[in-house]
Amino acid sequence: MGNQRYRSSEKEKHVLSPVEGGMVDKIQPILQYAKPLPHPGSLADFLLLLRNKTGQRVEGWLTITPPTGWIIEPGKRLMIAIRPQGTIVAEFYLSIPAVPAPGPHLLRIKVTAEEGLLAEAAFDLRDGLLFLVDS
User: What residue spans define the domains of the chain?
Assistant: First the structure.
């Protein structure tokens, strides 16, 4: 069979950094998903990577708030623990509503611990949609 090349039927993997204006000095979030997102009503797989940029273990809560009207599975709030300079991955699924609201389509995350807010960021998912939604 030699040197044959196969074209992958998988969607393009997309890595997204947070939009400007968040708080990411202690915990650095990166979002990964397949682009384009599937049609409304289908679940899209998302991976949120959280890197602890401190020398201390972080134990707390990750809260994920999807764009208006979008559905998140399995839930919005997860308990997390990240070793010093370590990275964890939170996997979740999002479903686009039949008629998405006008953009931007911001997925918001917060990381909190006993000492308070450790990270806050937003990711604009508009680029992953197959169609543009404007009013």
Answer: 12-127
Average pLDDT value for the chain? 87
Place of tokens 């208006």: 68
List beta partners, residue 79.
Answer: 61
Q: Give the pLDDT confidence of 1-14 residue by residue, as tens digits.
A: 444 433 334 567 89
Query: Domain 12-127 is classified in which CATH homologous superfamily?
Result: Immunoglobulins (2.60.40.10)
The pTM of this model reads 0.85
Structure tokens at 89: 């991955």
The residue ranges of DSSP E strands in the chain, in sequence order, are 12-16, 27-35, 43-52, 58-65, 71-73, 77-82, 87-95, 106-113, 116-124
Nearest to 118 by CA among 16, 29, 17: 29
